[in-house]
Q: What sequence folds into this?
């Protein structure tokens, strides 16, 4: 074989499509989170039915976001999957190692501020991002 | 694991991007394989063998301990 015929859709463009889909679903999910958090107070005066509908919508969009993330990971090649697997392993480990003592410290009032699950989510997001950057740098 | 991917690619005057496109992977993956930072999966090794018209062991070989 002397000539390479590129496939109809290149790897990079397919991954880019999946990333865009994932970002869109993440955006919609963030929107439904905001609706769920602020809607009862500012939009429907704490009406129970609307609050339950907002929670249901958030869960449905959340499930769709998980599916979008799964499809994105399935589209990746061996190396990118390995980078993500390493990032996931580090993220879960950090969440466990930091989360449990954080919870215990909060229950004994050893931290000067209100302990919130959002802190853990932010930590996980930062860990995942940093791990991915490290993986990309390591195999550059 | 050692491999002859870079040599085989150079013989055909292909860029990493072209080889990546033909093997349906990222250019970063080709670079990582060529530099020995990453060992490909069996399906990817088979795809490479099919593309170059060689057997897997003619491209990839285990390093002596």
A:
């Amino acid at each position: 074989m002397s000539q390479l015929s590129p496939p109809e859709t290149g790897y990079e463009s397919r991954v880019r499509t999946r990333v865009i889909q994932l970002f869109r679903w993440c955006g919609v999910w963030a929107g439904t989170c905001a609706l769920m958090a602020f809607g009862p107070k500012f939009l429907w005066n704490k009406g129970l039915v609307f609050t339950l509908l907002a929670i249901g919508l958030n869960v449905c969009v959340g499930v769709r976001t998980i599916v979008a993330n799964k499809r994105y990971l399935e589209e990746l090649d061996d190396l990118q999957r390995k980078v993500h697997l390493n990032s996931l392993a580090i993220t879960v480990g950090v969440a466990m190692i930091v989360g449990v003592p954080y919870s215990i410290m909060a229950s004994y009032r050893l931290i000067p501020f209100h302990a919130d699950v959002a802190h853990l989510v932010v930590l996980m997001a930062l860990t995942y991002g940093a791990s991915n950057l490290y993986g990309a740098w390591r195999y550059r | 694991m050692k491999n002859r991917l870079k040599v085989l690619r150079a013989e055909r005057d292909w860029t990493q991007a072209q080889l990546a496109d033909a093997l349906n992977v990222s250019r970063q993956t080709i670079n990582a394989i060529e530099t020995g930072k990453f060992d490909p999966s069996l399906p990817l090794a088979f795809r490479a063998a099919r593309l170059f018209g060689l057997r897997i062991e003619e491209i990839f070989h285990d390093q002596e301990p």
About this structure: Chain B has one domain: 2-54. The interface with chain A takes residues 12, 14, 18-22, 24-26, 28-29, 31-32, 37-38, 40-41, 44, 51-53 of chain B (CB under 8 Å).
